[in-house]
Amino acid sequence: MENQKTIIIAGGGYAGILAANRLARKKLPLKLILITDKPNFQERIRNHQLLAGNLKKEYPISDLLHKKITLKLGKIDKINGDKKEILLENKETLSYDYLIYALGVQKLPSNPDLPNYISIAEVEDCRKMNQVLRQISKPKITIIGAGLSGIETVAELAETFPHSELSIIENGKLGSGFSDAARNWMIDHLTKNQVNILEDTKVTSFSEGSIHTSAGFQLKHDICIFSNGLQASPVGSASSLPVNPKGQILVNEFLGCKSHPEIIGAGDGIQVDSPSGSHLRMACASAMPMGIYAAERLSFLLGAKSKLGEKPFSLAYLGRNVSLGRKDGVVQSSLRDDTPIGIVWKAKAAARIKETICKLTIFSMKMEKYFNFYLWKA
């Protein structure tokens, strides 16, 4: 096809799939290739359910993609931005005209390499550890980190394994991004379910079967789960792209890479290095709008009309939500910069809202194969 441009989407997560599907419907001469090392979609916002054994359904990425998109299974080793090439671990090289960098996050390499220490961010870790959990009658489980993922994990495990001994440790306060009313609801729920909550407690060292804390005591466990300590894919730094200490590539307000403008970033693997992006956090709620915007921005650069793509990326958060097992939860409203405000939904109503939001992520990716579906408050 005359003047056809090759667009590679690196990453098969929320941002990558949405970007690919939106681009596939543009009336532009494009060759679209999505590269991922996993054949099935990694529904990370449900990893706590996977760990507890409460998630059965899987979604092949090929089923979520528009028919014009070529799915390439492989692991990216490095990006040569000057030559516009991607090198895969199997030594295969792919050339591109534009690249959407949508590689996500992974566990820190500094996490201890000891038996039964896992990261909630790793899907395979969650699957394997569920089998371990089911072989122990009264498992002792410690969760490190009491943010959204940590709270959801400990609540899911408390409901599924009521005879377990659960502890959650946080260097600061549990649910620090929530209002006092929301935090109190979460603490009450966990306390009623016999969860040992340790706030303002720092983990100082690890050993097989136990952790040591700044309070001077040793906490024994059968399984220790990290819900914090994430870093971006190492591909950015390995490719000599500008990155922050977490490995996220630095992009401008149009999500363009600062050193290579033909690379557009989206998702957890980037940081918007401008005042307009200072409030953005690693989350599905950030990745999905970024994926759509990246597609629109690229379309605009290729000469298509796009009111969205001609303006800088903008995202106003509406709130945060957390599940507390299958029948309880909290939905916290917020200002556009993610500051919590007084409106809080709790209990079954919040659990239903949370579940609806989770289902909408998959539904949005499917609908974007056919028409512009996904919207957000800018």
- CATH topology descriptor of the largest domain: FAD/NAD(P)-binding domain
Identify the CATH architecture of the largest domain: 3-Layer(bba) Sandwich
Q: Which percent bin holds the helix content?
A: 25-40%
Q: What can be said about the biggest beta sheet?
A: 5 strands, parallel
Q: Measured on Cα atoms, how large is the radius of gyration?
A: 21 Å
Topology:
Elements (H helix, E strand, L loop, with lengths): L4 E6 L3 H11 L5 E7 L10 H6 L8 H4 L4 E5 L2 E5 L4 E4 L4 E3 L2 E4 L3 E3 L9 E3 L3 H11 L6 E5 L3 H13 L4 E5 L10 H13 L2 E4 L4 E5 L2 E4 L4 E3 L2 E4 L3 E3 L2 H4 L10 E3 L11 E3 L4 E3 L11 H18 L17 E5 L5 E6 L5 E7 H21 L11
Parallel strand pairs: 1-2, 1-7, 2-3, 7-19, 9-16, 10-11, 10-16, 11-12, 18-20
Antiparallel strand pairs: 4-5, 5-6, 8-17, 13-14, 14-15, 21-22, 22-23
Helix pairs in contact: 1-8
Protein name: NADH dehydrogenase FAD-containing subunit
Organism: Leptospira idonii
Keywords: FAD, Flavoprotein, Membrane, Oxidoreductase, Transmembrane, Transmembrane helix
How would you sum up this structure, described in words?
By secondary structure, this protein is an alpha/beta fold. It has 2 domains: 5-107 and 230-315, FAD/NAD(P)-binding domain (3-Layer(bba) Sandwich), CATH 3.50.50; 117-228, FAD/NAD(P)-binding domain, CATH 3.50.50.60. It contains 9 helices and 23 strands. It has helices at 14-24, 47-52, 61-64, 123-133, 148-160, 180-192, 235-238, 284-301, 347-367; strands at 5-10, 30-36, 69-73, 76-80, 85-88, 93-95, 98-101, 105-107, 117-119, 140-144, 165-169, 195-198, 203-207, 210-213, 218-220, 223-226, 230-232, 249-251, 263-265, 270-272, 319-323, 329-334, 340-346. The strands form 7 sheets. It has a 5-stranded parallel β-sheet with strand order 3-2-1-7-19, covered by helices on one side. Helix 1 runs parallel beside helix 8. Keywords: FAD, Flavoprotein, Membrane, Oxidoreductase, Transmembrane, Transmembrane helix. Its cofactor is FAD. One of its GO terms (biological process) is aerobic electron transport chain. It comes from Leptospira idonii.
